[in-house]
Protein: Tetratricopeptide repeat-containing protein
Organism: Geodermatophilus saharensis
Amino acid sequence: MRRPRTQDDLAALHHPGQTPDDSRAVARRLEAWAAEGTRAGDEVNAADLLVAAGEQLVRVGDAHDAVRVLRRAVGTGEPVEPDVRCYLHHALLQAGDADAARALAEEVRRERPSDGDVYLFIGEDYELHGDLREAHRWLTMGIRRALGDVEDTDELQSLEAAREAAHLLVARRRVRRELGMAPDDWDELVPEFPSLDDDPLR
């Protein structure tokens, strides 16, 4: 019987100078581990392993294969923060399947996720792929949710919601600038950063 899988096991698979072939080999190993299922004591579940495999494949440009692996991750029904479907959405955009990505995002939206990082993840994905209107829509939805949580939850949860709101506000202002939109009241709450790479909150 194997020992429990840990976060250290995942970290050990990455190394400086990793080649594309190395990354593909890591992805295959992660898929094999995931096929063994999640057992008592595991720090990482099968979905975590498949998400890590998908990220390896996206990194080396194998987006269609990443979509296959990440559909398996979603199919496990196991939790991955902030939502396992965020990673599939990213891979679908990388693979050029914008329609499937939009359909998946709408599925997520209809569930009204409480985690502001879901809105940030999907919003910044659209920003990176040049769909600034959709990015703005997602970031705005996320801010409304996060600011509502700041007002309606206990102190600890309010602090987390405020952190989420700060990230979303910065990203939204950046997108609005790219869209040529005049600053609004929310924009005045945060400094403006010229690009995603310059955002110190990321």
Observations:
- The CA atoms of residues 70 and 88 lie 5 Å apart.
- The two ends are 40 Å apart (CA to CA).
